Amino acid sequence: MATQHSRSAARLMMAPAVILLLGWMLVPLTMTLWFSFTRYLPMRGDSIERGLEWVGFENYVRFIGSSSFWPSVQATLMIVGGVLLITVVLGVLLAILLDQPMWGQGIVRILVIAPFFVMPTVSALVWKNMMMDPVNGMFSYIWRFFGADPVSWLSDASVPSIILIVSWQWLPFATLILLTAIQSLDSEQLEAAEMDGAPVLARFWFIVLPHLGRAITIVILIQTIFLLSIFAEIFVTTGGSFGTRTLTYLIFQRVVDSQNIGLGSAGGVYAIILANIVAIFLMRIVGKNLDR
Amino acid sequence: MGRITLDKVRKAFGDVEVIPPLDLTIEDGEFVVFVGPSGCGKSTLLRLIAGLEDVSGGEIRIDGQDATMVPPAKRGLAMVFQSYALYPHMSVRKNIAFPLRMAGLDAAEQERRVKAAADVLNLTDYLDRRPGQLSGGQRQRVAIGRAIVREPAAFLFDEPLSNLDAALRVGMRLEISELHKRLKTTMIYVTHDQVEAMTMADKIVVLRAGHIEQVGSPLELYRAPRNLFVAGFIGSPKMNLIGGAIAKQHDAATIGIRPEHISVSPEAGDWKGRVGVSEHLGSDTFFHVTCEGIGEPVTVRVGGEVDLSYGQTVWLTPDANQLHRFDDKGLRIA
Q1: Using the beta-carbon criterion (under 8 Å), do A191 and B146 form an inter-chain contact?
Q2: Which segment of the chain is annotated as a signal peptide (chain A) (predicted)?
C-alpha cells in the first residue's frame, strides 16, 4: 500500500518537471514538422493566422534536390570528423602530459580549461581578427617573419580554419575528461607491465589506451552531439562561404536569408534524422564499451 | 640461478632516509621473507630489488652481475603485486601471455607456456575469462601465472595475500610454498604477517625503520631473538616481556617468556595471579593472567581445553630453560 501511495505521489511531484520538459521539446518539434509540410513564405504574406497551404513532401524533395544539400552534409561530416580527430588525439597526449607531476600543476590545469569558458562567438572573432587575419593576424606575422606570403586562412583554407577554431574550443573538454580517466589508472598496472618487459610505447598502447577507451567513447559521443550543431563559429568567420556551409548553416540560410520557413523546417527534420542516425550508431559503440 | 646480493644499498626520498645502508645476501633457491610492521621499508626494499625505485647508493648484484642501473625488465625478476595488477581488458590467457608477447615469442610457444602455467595453477577453465569475472584467489593465481611464464631468476611477492579473506589466505600460503618446492626458484616475499613469515620462509629478514633487526631461519628467530623487537614480533601469541624486580632476579633488564613455556597450577608455582579473560580455541586455550609484581597481564598458552574461571587464583611457573634475557639496551644476553 505504502509503496503504491508513495509511487503515485512521486509521479505527481515529478509531473511539473516532466510536462515542462516535454512541452519544451514537443512544441517546437511538432511545429517544425507541421511547417515542413506547408508552404510558409512570410514575405509573400503567408502566416499561421491566415492558414498555411499544405504541400505534402514538396519541401523535402526541394531541400534534398538543392545543389547545396550534399556539399553541406559533406562539410558537416568533415568538420565534425576533423574536430573529433584533433581533440581526441591531442586530448590524450595533453592528458598524459598534465598527469605528470610538475611545478605549478594546478595553474596549468586551469589555464588548459580556460578556452572552454570563452563564448563561441568571441573565440571565433578572436581567431578571425587576431590570429588568421591576412594583414594584421598573428599568423601573417609569423609567415612574413620566415619570408613567406601570408595565407588568407578563412578563404583559402576555410574548412581547416574552422576545424582549428572549434578544436581549440573543445580540446579542453576532451583533455579534462581524459585526464580524470588517466588519473584512475592503477599505477601498479603500469609497473607490472614495465616488469613484464613492455617499453614506454607498448605500455601506452596495451595499458593506457585500453584504459581510456571508455572515456574516449564518451568524449566522442558528447562532442558529436554538440558539433553537429555548431553555428556561431561559421556565422562569424566565413558566413557559410568557401565550402563551410554545414547542414545547420544551410537551414539557417533557408529560413532567415531566403525567408522560406517551410523549406528550412524540412531541412531541420533531415538534421534530426541525421543526428539520430549518428546517435544510434554511437550509442551502440558506447554501450559495447560500457558493458565491459 | 637467482643469487641476489645487496651491498650497502641505501634509499632516501629527499631528506628522509627510508633505508640506511644495508647488506643482505639471498641465496639461489631460497624463500626469503621480509617481515616488519607497516612503514618499515620492506616494500621499498623489494621495489629497489625489482628496479621500480632507484637506489640512492650502494649496489645490487644479481648472480654476481651489477644490476643497480639495469631497468626492471632486464633484471630477469618477476613480481606479484598486492593489487594483482592484472590488465582488466585482457583475458586471463592474454594476461599470462603478455610478458611472452613483449619478449617477442612466437604464438605457438606462447600458447604452450600459457597452457603449462595454467595447468600448474588450475586456471585451464578460466583462460578466456576476464580478470573482473574471477574471484580474489583466482586473480592471485593469474598474477602468479603471469610471473612464472617468464621463468625468472627470482620471484618478488609484495604482500600478495593481504587482499584475501582468512580461509583463502591459508590455502594460497600452501600453494605458494608448494610452488616454491616445485620450481626451486628464489622467492622474496614481503609481508607484515609474522605467521606467513614463520610458515613459508627458509630465511626471515626482520626489518624495522629500514634496519635489519635479525636474519635467520624461522626457528632461529623463535629460539634466539636477538633483541626485544624481534622477540615481540615473532611468535603468536606474543612473548611476555617482563621487567622490574622479577627480571633483576635473573640478572637482566627484561626477561621474555613465550606463552607456551609457562605452566599453570591452581596450587603452587613461582608467580601468583588471577585469571582474566580466557580464549578457548579448542586445540589451545589462552589465559590472560594478572600477576602480582608484573605490570601487564601475562599470556599463557595451555594445550587442549582447560577450564579456569574468571577471577580464580592460579600459580604460574615459567620454564627456566626457555627464558630469554635482555640487557638494558634491549639486546639478548647469551
Answers
A1: no
A2: none
Domains of chain B: 4-232 (3.40.50.300), 246-326 (2.40.50.140)
Beta bridge partners, B31, equal B187
Q: Is B78 on the interface with A (CB under 8 A)?
A: yes
CB < 8 Å from A in window 11-50 of B: 50
Looking at residue A291, its pLDDT comes to 56
Q: Which residue type does A179 have? A: L
Mutant choice from B49, B95, B101, B158 vs A, greatest count of A C-beta within 10 A? B101
How much is the pLDDT for A245? 87
Q: How confident is the model at residue A196 (pLDDT cuts 50, 70, 90)?
A: confident
Task: Report residue A91: phi and psi, to 5°.
Answer: -60, -45
Structural domains of chain A sorted by starting position, each given as residue range(s) with its CATH number in brackets:
67-259 (1.10.3720.10)
Note if the pTM is more than 0.80: no
Q: How far apart are CA A101 and CA A97, in angstroms?
A: 9
- Reduced to 3 states, what is the DSSP secondary structure of residue A137? coil
Mark out chain A residues that contact chain B at CB-CB < 8 A.
Answer: 186, 188-189, 191-199, 202, 206-207, 210-211, 213, 292
Q: How far lies A142's CA from each of A38, A126, A150, in Å?
A: 53, 17, 8
Angle at the Cα of B152 (from B147 to B157), degrees rounded to 5? 50
User: Cα angle vertex B327, ends B325, B332, to 5°?
Assistant: 50
Distance separating alpha carbons of residues B276 and B266, to the nearest angstrom: 14
